[in-house]
Amino acid sequence: MATTGSVHTEGADIVYDHEGAGPLLLMISGGGGAAEHYARISGFLAEHYTVVRYDRRGNSRSTGDTTVDLDMAQQARDAVAVIRAMGGDEALVFGNSGGANIALQLATDHPEVIRALVAHEGPTSPLLPDADTWLAFADRVYGTFTAEGAEAASKVFATELVGFDAADPQQARVAAGEMTSNAEFWLAREYLPLATFDPDLGTIRGNKVAMVTAAGRESADAYYARTARVQADRLGCPYLEFPGNHLGFIFEAASFAAALREALDDLTSGTAS
């Protein structure tokens, strides 16, 4: 059973849920920004970790100024605030999609709070050799949102999702572009800053953060899987293949949790390769 808390930072109340016992593991959400995205996998991880998942500012239960665009540095500071609120000096960190991008910003600005990091499918499109294609795609998604609304934009965004099982009703809804929680805010204020994020990999490498990047086996050559491979190559860190697709932590929670635990164990023992 998770316990809920909150921390006030920079004009926002950041609400978080935590459960389990052991080393602190911070889970950072991407699009939709909701702690609930990690509810299923947390049940498998809580046996080994104190798992904390939070609603990013402006999303779900958390407050904040919803009239301004997402600020990556502030998002990183929010992550630090949650770690501190949990009584930690450092944490194991997992981020998926835009949450992986925020984790990379955390590794840039606050490496001292990261014990080990797994960045799963962070869509850092500017790093790709065909970056122009994917930056244009981001513009198309946002342009559709401004012209036609969140439902239409969500459907455009979903056209580039890879590896979702049409026979699984929940996965089929994602692949069809069904709107998720906080979709309006995500598209209005968060999507472009996350989709066009160009991480400072040189600084991260110099900070000597213990980390791996990862992508789902079913994600194949999706742009957000290719970015994970490019990140690993430029950072000189391992790249791992995890179970499932972009949302493997939901649809294959047990096996994804096992892979995440193995990656974190290897990183903290110094055997990641």
TrEMBL record:
Record's keyword annotation contains Hydrolase: yes
Protein keywords: Hydrolase
Xref: Gene3D superfamilies: alpha/beta hydrolase
Transmembrane segments: none
GO terms classed as biological process: glycerolipid catabolic process
Record-linked InterPro entries: AB_hydrolase, AB_hydrolase_1, AB_hydrolase_fold
Pfam families reported for this sequence: Abhydrolase_1
A GO term for molecular function: triacylglycerol lipase activity
Source organism superkingdom: Bacteria
PANTHER family listed in its UniProt record: AB HYDROLASE-1 DOMAIN-CONTAINING PROTEIN, HYDROLASE, ALPHA/BETA FOLD FAMILY PROTEIN
Protein's name in the database: Alpha/beta hydrolase
Organism of provenance: Nonomuraea rhodomycinica
